[in-house]
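chain below, 207 aa
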Amino acid sequence: MLEFLKSIEPHIETLMQEVLGARIDSERNRDLRRNIVLRFLSQLLADDERARLYGLPASCRVRENTKILNPEKLVCGEHVWIGENAFIDASGGLEIGDHSTVGVGVFVWTHTSVLANLMQANHPGGAQVIRRSTRIGTGCYIVGHAVLNPGVTVGDGAIVLPMSCVSHDVPAGDIVAGSPAKSVGQVTEAFKQRLREELAVQRSGPT
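prediction:
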């Protein structure tokens, strides 16, 4: 790394001029640039500090490289954990209930620009963007690299397994998987008891 830095040092001024020369001064770009800098600097924070920066409750945690779009439209409960590299779009309205996890690399969407593409009107400003409120209930577990499409509701205590694409509402206590996500089980008392027993064995240590 040191050798790399030494190699580019003579060219830094030229590179900076190229970067600055590409800037377009507009209200939109100034707002975007502020968000880019804020996200970049937030990497210096711990996960609870980053949650505070986004205005989430003190009991929440947000891991590195997560992007929250329009955090002012996110209604977030207590004890929420958001994993690394998650993309949380709250532009259309998003609610996350208490004690829920949004895993590593999860994409949560509340808007779609598909109409702009179909109408060949994909211009800055989002005049053709459709927004749909999305909800994640309490006690939900959204496992990494799942996608929640705009307008869906994930019911209380539901589990979304890895690599799932949720296009329809998930009933409370359902376990879904696949693309499109379909029910593969239920969070029953027996299911939770098996997890408690597994945890008890782990905590008891080697026999």
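The helical segments are 2-8, 12-21, 27-41, 47-53, 114-118, 189-204. Residues 67 and 87 are 5 Å apart (CA to CA).
thats it, cya
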